Amino acid sequence: MDFTFTEEQQAVVEAAKAVFADVAPDGVPSPALTPGCVAEDFDRALWPKLAAADLLGLLIGPEHGGVDLDPIALCLVLRESAKVLARVPLLEHSAATATVRAHGAAELRQRILPRAAHGELVLTVAANGRTGHDPAELAVTAHRDGGTWTLDGLQTGVPWAHNADLVLVPAHIPDGHTVVALVPRDTAGLTIGEQFSTSGERLGELRLEDIRLGPDDVIEAEGAWDRLRDLLTTGTCALALGLGEGVLGMTSDYTSKREQFGHPVATFQAVAVQTADRYIDLRAMEVTLWQAAWRISTGADSALPTAGDVAVAKIWASDGVRRVVQTAQHLHGGFGADTDYPLHRYHAWAKQLELSLGPAAAHEEALGDLLAAHALS
User: Is 168 within 8 Å of 209 (Cβ atoms)?
Assistant: First the structure.
């Protein structure tokens, strides 16, 4: 496999580093000390900077003001964002725009994509279903009567639901297929309850009661939801990788300065072995991430569907990021629990990412089903 990134992808990384350079991981109250959400909104000051750097239009075509790159480029940017715990809906927004671009009607693309590329319109996705453990597409039903769609159901744990302008909601129709509806936040019949993530962010419980939408507001293309879910999951793996790399860097820096018995603790064999194991975890997370992102970007054929590579990446991301932050806490000692030090924030984010869109066990089960259904030669 060739891991060389294109010049355009490398340029995107440099742009992302410049935008995220001034982001402070402790820019909001600590989730350990805050009973509710750490902030009512995402980082609105950062959002226009992302737009100015063309990072909100990565997956949007130039005809709509985007830069026409691929999910690999998006994952590179997400990786950088997680190193500083950037509080923006970059993953959900970008994945939603990719879905609109690939499957939306011409009128919908023209109405949504230019404004999304410039940050004037914020999109998110409801991908957790009723409980976070059941398929999201089964949580909402959709019926069409002439040119009008009607939606009813419940979606929980929707990131940035209180602040996004549009929510992409998967729904099942009577024939068993899945459609993706674009629901404005102020739509009649939509109520948004307040929930909180492990990282202290504000989530939304969406209750849809007799929601009415026009034909252009519902994407009926076969496989649109599957591809959107795969992109969201792969982006979550990129976030986990960036967070893990940031945490390992913090740990290396701390253990190289912290001394016991007159020597830096980084020189002790037990410390070196643990950090080496976590480095191996990160490299496994990286290689499986790029395999999944490459499959999504190219549509290349393989013995297993793309969902198989996505499942492998999420297994490694979930288990790997958990091990990285646990080792970091151990090697930092009591200092790692100090709420004036940012490590506990990374730990909270890691737990959220570990379980987002399914823990390792759920993806191991999905991978087993795919292996059973597709004979490997």
Answer: no
Q: What is the pLDDT of residue 260?
A: 76
Q: Are strands 166-172 and 123-125 parallel, antiparallel or unpaired?
A: parallel
Q: Which uninterrupted H or E stretch holds 155? A: strand 148-159
**SS in 3 state form for the chain?**
CCCCCCHHHHHHHHHHHHHHCCCCCCCCCCCCCCCCCCCCCCCCCHHHHHHHCCCCCCCCCHHHCCCCCCHHHHHHHHHHHHHCCCCCCHHHHHHHHHHHHHHCCHHHHHHHHHHHHCCCCCEEECCCCCCCCCCHHHCEEEEEECCEEEEEEEEEEEECCCCCCEEEEEEECCCCCEEEEEEECCCCCEEEEEEECCCCCEEEEEEEEEEEECHHHEECCCCHHHHHHHHHHHHHHHHHHHHHHHHHHHHHHHHHHCEECCEEHHHCHHHHHHHHHHHHHHHHHHHHHHHHHHHHHHCCCCCCCHHHHHHHHHHHHHHHHHHHHHHHHHHHHHHHHCCCCCHHHHHHHHHHHHHCCCCHHHHHHHHHHHHHHCCCC
Cα–Cα distance between 119 and 325 in angstroms, integer? 33
In 10 A of CB 33, how many CB atoms?
10
Residue 200 φ then ψ, to 5°: 90, 5
Query: What digits encode the pLDDT tens for the residues 150-173?
Result: 999 999 999 999 999 999 999 999
pLDDT at 2 over 90: no
> What pLDDT was estimated at residue 259?
64
Task: Calculate the CA dihedral of residues 171, 174, 177, 182 and round it to 10 degrees.
Answer: -30
Confidence tier at 257 by pLDDT (50, 70, 90) = confident
